[in-house]
Write a structure and sequence with these properties.
The chain has 194 residues and is of the alpha+beta class. The protein has a single domain, classed as 3-Layer(aba) Sandwich (Aminopeptidase). The protein is 37% helix and 26% strand. It has seven helices and nine strands. The chain has a seven-stranded mixed sheet, with helices on both faces. It has a two-stranded antiparallel ribbon with strand order 1-2. Helix 5 links the parallel strand 7 and strand 8. The longest helix has 15 residues. It is globular and about 45 Å long. It starts with 8 loop residues before the first helix and ends in a 5-residue tail after the last helix.
């Protein structure tokens, strides 16, 4: 990756810690920086595990790991129509992962990678980028384990960018940019670490 990339590790860390995240324009591929208002978060201390997800986890022998296949998780998340996760993003976020700022949660079934998610972690905040599943509820299992891990580490902010119908079913809510920035500042001042 060229040092002239707009996705340098230093710029990415600076952007996330100030409420911005990058996305390429669908037409031109040019990278833009976004700070949406309202912003979507999942309140991790009020996370409610649905009955159907609990049933799935008790019935299916999923195995969950952290940071074992970061690049594969990104590539799997990119493997969909209309994806914004291009080669430049994969290279940049893999470099963030090597530096300890980006993490993946992998969900396995009988030694096959069937779901997961990835995102950026700074102090007490986790900025979820994308998730995917090949087995029913596997991405929800990844989210469940992410939240349990964040609770254990005393992390407080789980940001998910934009509210979608799917994220809403997982407990995501919208908050104003003003409220988000206050939560972000608290997370950045925290001694918590992923």
């Amino acid at each position: 990756m060229s040092n002239r990339s707009p996705l340098s590790p230093q710029l990415l860390v600076y952007a996330y810690s100030n409420g911005y995240f990058p996305m390429p324009d669908h037409g031109t591929g040019q990278i833009g920086w976004f700070r949406p208002d309202p912003r979507a978060i999942i309140p991790i201390n009020d996370f409610h595990t649905s009955r159907s997800l609990r049933r799935t986890m008790s019935r299916i022998p999923f195995h969950v790991t952290f940071d074992q296949n970061f690049a594969e998780i990104m590539k799997a998340c990119a493997n969909r129509e209309g994806t914004w996760i291009n080669a430049e993003f994969i290279g940049a976020y893999c470099e963030l992962h090597r530096r300890g700022y980006a993490h993946s949660i992998e969900v396995w079934l009988e030694n096959e990678l069937v779901g997961g998610l990835y995102g950026v972690s700074l102090s007490g905040g986790f900025f979820a980028e994308s998730m995917y599943h090949k087995a029913t509820d596997a991405s929800k299992v990844a989210l469940f384990h992410l939240i349990k891990h964040m609770q254990k580490q005393s992390m407080a902010l789980l940001e998910v960018q934009f509210l979608t119908p799917h994220l809403k079913t997982l407990g995501a809510i919208e908050i104003s940019d003003e409220k988000y920035i206050l939560m972000l500042q608290d997370a950045m001042a925290s001694s918590a670490r992923f």
